[in-house]
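User: Can you fold this complex?
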Amino acid sequence: MAIWCTDLAIDRWRLAEGLACREGPDATPLALIEDTAHGPRIAAVNAAARAAGAMPAMRLADARTLCPVLAVRPADPAGDLAFLESLALWAQRWGPWSALDPPDGLLVDVTGVAHLFGGERALIADVLALLEKRGLAARAALAPTAGAAWALAHYAPQAAILPPEADPRAHLADLPVAALRLDADVVLLLRRLGLKRLGDLDGLARENLARRFRNTRSAAANPLLRLDQLFGLRPEPLLPVVGVPAPLVQRRLMEPIRHRPLLDQVVADLAQDMARLLEGQAQGARRLELGMWKVDGEVLIRSLEMAAATRDPAHVCRLFATRLDDLDAGFGIELVRLRASWTEPLLLAQADLDAAAESHGTSLAACIDRLTVRLGAQAVRRPVPHASHLPERAQRWQPPLADLPSSQEELRFHHRPLKILDKPESVSVIYETPDGLPRRFRWRGEVHEIARAEGPERIAPEWWRERSTVRLRDYYRIEDALGRRYWLYRHGVIGDGRGGAPEWFIQGLFA
Amino acid sequence: MIEHAHLPDPVALLPGLARGLGATTRTPRWHPGIATGCRHAELFAPARDASGAGLALAFARDALAREQAAETPDRRPFLWVQDKAALRLSGRPYLPGLPAELRHRLIHVAAVTPEDALFALEEGLRCRDLAFVIGELAGNPRALDFTASRRLSLAAEKHGVPLWLVRLDARRDLGAARMRWEVGAAPSPQSRWNPHAPGTSTWRADLFRTHTFHPGQWNLRDDGAVLTAEPAPSATPDHGDLVHGSGDRSLAAG
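Assistant: Here's the predicted assembly.
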């Protein structure tokens, strides 16, 4: 079904002014004008001006020549389009979906719904009656295809219906070629070719038309495409209008409230509800309207606009708190409603990890992750025991949160140093006998007098994995005169046949 | 949105802080096992031995034993952060030599630069799952100025994770730590079974700067479970109410 609002701009202007038809300024010639590069141009005229000779698309200067008393008002094409959009949504009362046909038409899909209104004639009559009730001059037509319905609405008698069983070629043959929704220059070309009616076009060979317009792919410039769409031989996708209801939450109150703290509580609850609703839709509110219905029927409205889309309840409450100061509750407020009339997509954001960590501390895994990211996996490790007699092999390093390997209990009678040097450092030791206790050693340029010593604890090389020439180690726990405790070892013994005189090394530091 | 987290009142934080007239006599003396309320302590120690790390571990165990309930054993890990110089000078922790109850709870961080080490320390202090944090930094790095020290102190007090910062071969520069110790090794007592062998670990500890206690010197010994203290033999005689030397005065004693 196609609906054509013949005087949409004028009707809208009249409704905005609150005038009936042919009353007040509408009784005299009036035109809506738009500014162009060549001066003002008439966008729409009312009936009186049309009678006086003014036409749309005429220059205002020319129209003034014909009709010196022509009054002008600025046209509002953007407002007209918005009005047409809301009208298209409203028109979905007759069919499941509707599409815009700018600048002043609508297409409604009424396939299989006519019987709900008592037949196609009753449906058309209903449409015309309701549009007239809204103060809009309109024409409507029903046809199996959108193109045919448009042609009938514009160029056929009012309320024309093309029945599905009728032959569209015969039925539409008398319509002018302009009914094909073609551009003006194409219509002019067709007229110069002598093709005035759809029937004329239909009489031509199809190849000739295709050849004539072979370079134009746009449907609005190719009569053959338009003809096929008119007769339903070629699909014509339409972009439906989908209404998006504004997110809305409300609270009906059991008792009317008259005090501010109670209202603040209700607003906080509503903000929470709204946040949950918006989060489900991945939207954030740019404008919020808080409506408060009083017991005596008055409505108080406070609206709020945010600089960026948000759904933070605390933020919304804080902003509304300042707007509610001058509220007059009267006998009480019984219904509070919060509506987000402007929303923008706002993706779900991750909770603020840093702030949470700031107040509650991080978990161990998060801490390890942060350390590992900055310092590298090799820097953050934990020691695990390893089955080996050699001190430097007795511990291995693994990632801090990995499972501990199973291991045997350590032997308790061994004293082991708290810290171990990565690489044993060579020391020069003075001893009484080559195999006896050391007396004094020099390490890092300082001489340590040995006060006490215990040892040796002999640790033999691991012959199953090392070569036969590796020397054994004799470990000594020593304490020097100042109380510093070290772990020294002598590498080899004299006469073991694996090198010369044994060397001494320092490997560990006791606490 | 800035959320002002609850920071403890600095005065309420230190229950032992005495002010006003007679503050000197009312200021308590430190002894092992006393509740210090101190979350950030610095231990100045030589790098040639492990006395700093050993005493830090002993202090940490002492504080843990005081805090934890006996029926719920504390299994939280602890963090040991070393920078490269500290690692080279005094070695890395050795698992068989660690105290038995801390042995499997160690997480070691080998930072390359002092900046990285400070970062790791701060992250560790912010972690609620750590029992305590030990840091070992060699010398007086430029990164560890008073601001960095104060950051560590605030983080430790905010999240309640104690920090024992061992300074190896360092000057006593500015720091925000509430207790500052000078640590060295001391001759150990005679071993029970072998008179010629080194005994239990003993340290000479000098509490030279503190908020809530009198400064003092002790010989501290880790007898397996508890930390015991005996007055240092070379300690300066106690002058009673006389004014201490300016460098050795408790800040609270005014």
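The CA atoms of residues 354 and 362 of chain A lie 9 Å apart. Chain A is about 30% helix and 30% strand.
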